[in-house]
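Subject: for your reference before the review

Hello V.,

The reviewers asked for a structural picture of the protein, and I figured it would be easier to keep everything in one thread rather than splitting it across files. Below is the amino acid sequence we used in the manuscript, unchanged from the supplementary table.
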Amino acid sequence: MVLLTVAGERWAMPLVTGLFALIAASILGCTGLRYRTLRPSTLLIHAGVFLILAAGLGNGAGYTATANLYPGDSVGTFFRWDRQTQFSPGFAVRITEIDRRWYPAEIRLGILRHQAKQELITARTGTTVTAAGLTLTLGELDPLARQLDLEVRDGKGGHWRGKAGTLPLVAGDYGVQLVAFQTPALRSIGAGLQILENGVVRREGRVAVNDPLAWNGLRFSLTALDNDAAGNPYAGLQITSNPAWPVTVAGFLLTVCGLLLHLRHLVRPDRAAGAAKSFSTVNR
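And here is what came back from the structure prediction:
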């Protein structure tokens, strides 16, 4: 952080890379000169730290890039943050849909018959209620669109499914209208994603917060979900390339093993045995 502040973005990465290289070279030289006298635990720690630093240097081959996409749009260029410029990774991505999921909420429904008010009921989404001879299965409420997923049965074989909002869902002689609701809490956000090469879909799935999609050594993460000034939803997508992550994991494992082995040497069995023998001799 000091280097970033003092040197600025232009020179920060070379300075950090140079510092990592000097530390790695120092560890390698020290270990090479004294490896015959070093404990196995120390050798493991040195090897682990060296691999972690080497992985940090290797991450220079990776990148992080972002783009904002509207549903149905395909994008083949992204903003690469380390270079502060647009670049093309050789493939395109498409957002097929934007998905918001909400927790259950209390709602109020009006039931009409022949366009005349029949009954007003209060219920909770995710439940099934009976009113005016109808069985209503209440699905998820979308507070932004002010619509409710609704399924209606009339007990005579009639079955209707659709959305009830400002305009009622027509079910035979009846209509079911969303009158009011409590704003539900947002449960999760996600987006449908397609990865294309030369117009051919190579990978398809869903990305959500803390649930990225992996393909060809890359990670596709959802970083934002918002509406523009016109009210159109869009998704922020981040692509991360980190080719050195297996080396980082191996370095941490070696370091932990070295530390555990070093802790084992802190209390040696021969010292404990000597201390017990001296104690018994004094007590005689």
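For the response letter, the relevant points are probably these. Helices lie at 2-34, 40-58, 245-266, 269-283. The longest strand covers residues 186-197.

Happy to draft the paragraph if you're swamped.

O.
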